[in-house]
Design goal:
Blueprint: E1 3-6, E2 9-12, E3 29-31, E4 37-38, E5 49-51, H1 90-103, E6 107-112, E7 115-121, H2 128-132, E8 137-141, H3 143-146, E9 153-158, E10 161-162, E11 165-171, E12 176-181, E13 200-205, E14 213-222, E15 226-229, E16 241-243, E17 249-256, E18 264-267
Antiparallel strand pairs: 1-2, 3-4, 3-5, 6-7, 6-9, 7-8, 8-12, 9-10, 9-11, 11-12, 13-14, 13-16, 14-15, 15-18, 16-17, 17-18
Amino acid sequence: MGAILFSGSAFAISNYVSDNTAANGYLLCANKTTKAVTFPNKLSCPSGTIPLDLGAVTGVEGPEGEMGPQGFPGSVGAQGPVGPKGEDGTNTKALIDSLGKIVDPALYLITCGTSIGSGFGILVTLSADSKAKGYLGVVATNYHVVKNCLGTSISVTQNNRNLGGIVRNWDSINDVALIYTIGTVSTLAPAQTKPSRGDTVVAFGNPYGLEGSVSIGIVSNIDSDSVVTDAAVDSGNSGGPLVNNAGQFVGMNTWGWVGAQGSSHALTPGNFCREILVCPVTSSFLTWSR
């Protein structure tokens, strides 16, 4: 049986006919003896020729052949090098434990109506007038946590201990506020040096009212007013401290991009000196404000 290449396809000469028909307006014929292909220019093949199959009709299947011998299995490839040993979590737990001893006493749950957030004590010299009114401590938080309780009493608690307080100073633009408390507070010191990308940081707070929660991450970047971190920050973490491995706060957990993962922003200590505090040039809050 012969074959012919036509428009990139091979066609077998057989007795089968598909689209090479007079009905389709063309006809190719093959000589039964010489296998020569002719174009008769009419709608029938001359004597001694047969129509050439241009379709995809499959011929009669031939007998099944025997399977060849199976080759030998290949040799086993060389084993790759052993990867580095992962952390067992011991160092992380030790860091969290040591930071907890510093931060937990200074972490507070802030409740303003239906708004729940976090706050932490900072060292502020109270005026004689404030002391005369019975205020003994100052807790820093976000403005958006207490915006509905400005100038009124507010709940500041820690392990069911209510310190009592009032929102005295706030800065809505920079989203910071100060709560003066009737009870004494433990305080956190601001970091004295600017953090760098890759530094380990830990976010403390009360997400969804769950007191004393922590999440660990790194500093992803630093912009003009905030430290960007991949430490998980959820609703209720607002106002809580982001601390370095020495327990100093490098920022106040404040906001993140909607739908983003690993991009939370914590306001730098210098934000406290914009409106709510009078900070001398030697103030520790200003050591790396910008």
